[in-house]
Design a protein that fits this description.
487 residues; alpha/beta; D-Maltodextrin-Binding Protein, domain 2; 5-stranded mixed beta sheet; 3-stranded parallel beta sheet; 12 strands; 41% helix; globular
């Protein structure tokens, strides 16, 4: 099994190398104008950035590295995998074996023992231990947004302050550092060490059979040239809409172009380049949701969601999202929004499908964006009761480096072992989605419950100004308290 996993890693590495050849800016078609003018697809990192340099050699003599994580497969969670735990009963499963491979490699090399404790409620267990002053865990994995709440309670260590971490390296997620660092502090990190931020990334499925039947062209090419916009999606989607049973009523028994729901509005908001808060040149957070662009984005979301000539909402489908998945598998849906963790559901799909990033607002948008569902996505945090942050920083760096070499290639491979995987373009698109992650301080700190207005305004964009006004004062007050606390 070790050789199989390493072979998969090498195969994926070679495939990525092939994809990135020709253009340092993006993997666009060779010789295309887009390769020179559109920074749409994030490039592979350079050889120097992807090096895995050796850590200073240490032997901890069998010391335990203690992790608190969520249970696998509990109801209302999205955890198909565990970042650090593996099961003897699942021997032969690609991810399970890759986690085992990574764990053993680190344990043997540094003389440590990984202890992965799981719970139904990580924050509850972590808070209990921290309040009791008990050094029970070296790291914990609350949801990212919950980690920021815990930071406000004085329960977590600023991870940027940890020794040994080389957060500028490509195996650590630069996106979470860019978007969620406040006053030089950050309370949750992720990267190749974790699969959760990949699992909770958003993207679109597209039905290749319908696209071929209606001669809609190659959607991957639209992405590469920067012409994959909401207008293009609606144009293509409208072309396949059909009253399949001829009863004169368009419902879930017919063929539709797009399936989505108002609750997904926040994904669209960020996909169109929107932000709720950003950090200014002085390192201070600023609420930017009231800028003119935000209304333009909300109007575009509402226009798509409420256009019954192309879009069916999940509220109008029996079994909601499960019913939408069935429509995709039955070739009655062209585009369906989803998170990456749903890919295995389609392994039984008879015909081919592909994955795409969320489209741009228009062709002037600088790049594609994917909002990570930080409200249900675990990150890696360090309790303030941790008595040896030097050891913790060392272990996190060691684990993340080993994960980049062993775990991430296996994760990508397992998601390509579907009908989405019949060409190199699928690898290119998956990597694009994973490279385009977006987070937001206003979401993670939940300032004024600001993000709640997006779903309401997706249903009725004319309410945006009034909804924003009703939230803005509380949002600004909450933000000021946060700045005062951490400034």
């Amino acid at each position: 099994m070790k050789k199989q996993i390493i072979s998969a890693a090498l195969a994926l590495a070679l495939l990525f190398a092939l994809i990135s050849c020709g253009s340092a800016e993006q993997p666009a078609a060779e010789g295309s104008a887009a390769a020179e003018t559109q920074p749409d697809v994030v490039s592979d990192t350079t050889a120097a950035e992807t090096e895995y340099p050796e850590l200073e050699a240490k032997d901890f003599g069998g010391r335990e590295f203690r992790i608190l994580a969520y249970n696998q497969g509990d109801p209302s969670t999205w955890f198909q995998y565990l970042d650090f735990g593996y099961s003897e009963d699942k021997k032969g499963d690609l991810i399970n074996d890759a986690v085992w491979e990574r764990n053993i490699a680190v344990e043997d090399k540094y003389g440590v023992k990984l202890i992965n404790t799981t719970a139904a409620d990580v924050p509850k267990n972590a808070r209990k231990a921290i309040k009791a002053g008990s050094d029970e865990f070296d790291i914990c994995q609350p949801y990212i947004d919950t980690a920021f709440q815990m930071a406000g309670e004085g329960m977590l260590v600023d991870v940027i302050s940890l020794p040994w971490l080389e957060l500028e390296r490509s195996y650590w997620d630069e996106n979470i550092q860019r978007d969620l660092t406040l006053k030089g502090k950050l309370w949750a990190i992720t990267g190749d060490i974790s699969m959760f931020d990949e699992e909770l990334s958003c993207m679109f499925y597209w039905n290749r059979l319908l696209a071929e039947q209606y001669e809609l062209g190659e959607c991957y090419d639209y992405v590469r040239t920067g012409s994959w916009t909401i207008d293009k999606m609606m144009e293509l989607g409208r072309a396949v809409v059909q009253d399949l049973n001829g009863d004169g009523v368009m419902d879930s028994s017919d063929v539709w172009g797009i399936c989505d729901n108002y609750s997904v509005g926040r994904y669209w908001f960020f996909a169109f380049g929107g932000q709720m808060a950003r950090v200014d040149e002085n390192g201070d957070p600023v609420i930017v949701m009231g800028e003119e662009k935000s209304q333009i984005i909300i109007d575009a979301i509402g226009n798509m969601m409420n256009d019954s000539t192309v879009t069916i909402l999940t509220v109008n489908i029996p079994d909601s999202w499960m019913g939408a998945r069935a429509m995709m598998k039955e070739d009655r849906l062209l585009f369906l929004s989803a998170n990456i963790y749903t890919i295995p559901y389609y392994r039984s799909m008879e015909n081919d499908f592909g994955i795409l990033p969320y489209p741009k607002l228009d062709e002037n948008q600088d790049r594609y964006y994917n909002q990570v569902a930080s409200w249900v996505c675990p990150g890696i945090s360090v309790p303030t009761t941790n008595q040896d942050i030097d050891f913790t920083g060392y272990m996190l760096e060691a684990l993340c480096r080993a994960s980049g070499e062993i775990l991430q290639p296996a994760y990508i491979d397992v998601n390509l072992m579907t009908k989405v995987t019949r060409d190199e373009s699928s690898v290119e698109m998956l990597k694009l989605v994973l490279d385009s992650k977006r987070y937001d301080l206003a979401v993670s700190f939940n300032w004024g419950n600001l993000s709640d207005i997006i779903a309401k305004c997706a249903e009725d964009p004319s309410k945006f100004s009034s909804q924003l006004a009703s939230k803005l004062k509380k949002t600004e007050t909450d933000m000021a308290k946060t700045v005062e606390m951490f400034g």
